[in-house]
Predict the 3D structure of the following.
Amino acid sequence: MKRKIAAILIALTMILSLAACGTTGTSGTVTASGTKTTTKAQTTSTALDTSAEFTDRDLEQTADTSNATTLTVSDGNDITISEEGVYIVTGSAKNATIIVDVPDTDKVQIVLSDVTITNDSAPAIYVKSADKVFITTTGTNKLTVSGEFETDDDTNLDAVIFSKEDMTLNGTGSLTISSTANGISCKDDLKITGGTINIDCTEDALEANDSIAIADGNITINTDKDGMHAEYDEDDSVGYIYIAGGTINITAADDAIHATTVVKIDGGNLTLNAHEGIEGTLIQINDGSIDITASDDAINAGQKSKQVYVGVEINGGDITIDMGQGDTDAVDSNGYLTLAGGTLTINAQSPFDYDGQLNFTGTKLIVNGTETTSVSNQMMGGEAAGFGGNGSMNPGGQPPQGDAGGQPPEGGHGKRG
């Protein structure tokens, strides 16, 4: 039902946002500041409406425990929560799972208070049914799965915290997760608004179908796969990642951040060390401090969804990229590239590779130690190609006409409803 509603909202949004974003071949596109330009290709977007991303309860870091029920975990005994409410969980146990199974109209808040759970093959927390679940930390908490995960009927329970419903993690305490597969998996929307979270896993550390949204918190991830991964393989209109704040350190063997649709960063301090740093269809950076070390592409926009334009927008923030040797690109866009604000420092053999329109209007650009107002385009197997013969674009100048690439279906620019 949620995805049907989302599809309707996306369709309406695509129609409404057509005027805001423009289409390839039409004049009057809108810049990041909201002013119109007279270019004939898409250069910027209203990528994602995040004005109501977090509720007041999401952002509250302490729970109202005046009517809470206290539960203590014990070896070999699962705890099933079957009624709406606030539950304080304490104790240490082996092979015990906290199961949430309430009507899909009910909300449950689990307060982890100095909890340690070590399981062989089952999640430490399993949300089967609810409207939404809050996991709030106090004190020091550690959840571990050390063996091969088992399935529950047709569900592959492959995470230490596994939720079929919306879930928010917050609190003033710490949560350490160790996993032989995924760290935290959510089949709807996953939000983190506070607390200290440390994840060490062999697959995706934070995984969600619909979205991952981070408002605050101190997050450290070490993974053999992706640090954050938002994707639903049956619907390419969902799967976005939004970061508004927090301190995030990711070491990943594959992508640090991977989204099907949009990656939008409005703040935070991010340190990413990975094969690829940030990957999505549309990547929009408006603020924040971002340090990326990558062995392939640091920022990579490709057509993973037909619901949004393919592009990279840097409208603000302080971004530093250090690239490995070889056929690597610091910023690789299979669509348009907008450099409209902030500071971008790149150390790389190939700073840029873009297929569509360039809009260079305000970013302070430092490439291999030298501040420059020239953007070279590495294309066609390593040959440099660019506009005006040298790939340069003076700030404030009009980008040349051209196809922005990655145009969505007729009806305009889509976003997650």
Summary: Residues 4-44, 380-417 have pLDDT under 50 and may be disordered.
